[in-house]
Design goal:
Layout (H helix, E strand, L loop, with lengths): L2 E11 L4 H17 L4 E8 L2 H5 L2 E2 L12 E8 L2 H17 L10 E16 L17 E8 L2 H11 L5 E9 L6 E7 L3 H11 L7 E10 L8 H6 L8
């Protein structure tokens, strides 16, 4: 099996329920989705206040104004539509079984997308091949959504792997938003500082429209030390 794409979701929950929502996600929501045909793995990420401060986004983006504190990335194999259709049907089965008990009005999906892998490049020091990139060890990701000159965007993605702490970059094309490309940089270190520094050291080419460039820390299941910092910040306290 080889990775062919992802299902991507940007999400929020009410601040007072951060731990409850994340435990529900780790213990009840993720397992049946990973069991679906075509799903290879799942990773979740959080944007604590420092990561929000390092984020750039279009004003009308789902990632603007303190939204989208969490993302989920399901790595797929085969036709991405197989997993997407499976998730759609699974949701209805879980509702019928009473397994979607977390209140809908206390959580929100800010963006959902299905993306197909285009190119991948690893830090040459790892000696990894392109299909290895989605599974590289990492402590965080920098997610970039962009439009414009694709060759220039791909060249920047490749250049990032020469920077300290960047282990690989996977570039994917959106199926739901034609013309939108996503780069996922798998990184190690202070991801907020890296996002700011990489914009300076490896700038985007002229003509590239950056919809969002956002750092996220990888979530260790059942370990949420950043929850109180989110609650204590000036980020939106409720999904409304």
């Amino acid at each position: 099996m080889r990775p062919t794409g992802i299902i991507f979701a940007a999400l929020d929950c009410d601040a007072e329920l951060i731990e409850d929502w994340n435990r529900w996600y780790d213990l009840e929501h993720t397992p049946p989705n990973v069991l679906l045909d075509g799903v290879m793995s799942s990773n979740r990420y959080v944007s604590p206040p420092g990561c929000h401060a390092a984020r750039v986004a279009h004003d009308d983006s789902p990632f603007a104004h303190g939204r989208a504190s969490f993302i989920t990335v399901y790595t797929l194999t085969g036709d991405p539509d197989t997993a997407f259709d499976g998730m759609s049907g699974l949701r209805e089965r879980l509702i019928d079984a009473g397994r979607m008990a977390f209140p809908d009005d206390r959580k929100a999906v800010r963006q959902g997308d299905v993306l197909v892998g285009a190119t991948a490049v690893a830090d040459p020091a790892t000696r990894c091949e392109p299909d290895d990139v989605p599974f590289l060890g990492h402590t965080g990701v920098i997610v970039t959504q962009r439009t414009g000159d694709e060759s220039a965007g791909t060249a920047r993605a490749r250049s990032l792997t020469g920077e300290p702490g960047v282990h690989g970059v996977w570039t994917l094309a959106s199926r739901l938003r034609p013309g939108v490309t996503m780069d996922i940089a798998f990184v190690e270190g202070d991801v907020a500082e890296m996002a700011i520094d990489l914009r300076r050291r490896v700038p985007f080419a002229a003509g590239t429209d950056v919809i969002v460039d956002a750092p996220f820390e990888r979530i260790v299941p059942l370990h949420y030390p950043w929850a109180e910092a989110l609650r204590a910040s000036d980020l939106p306290a409720t999904v409304g």
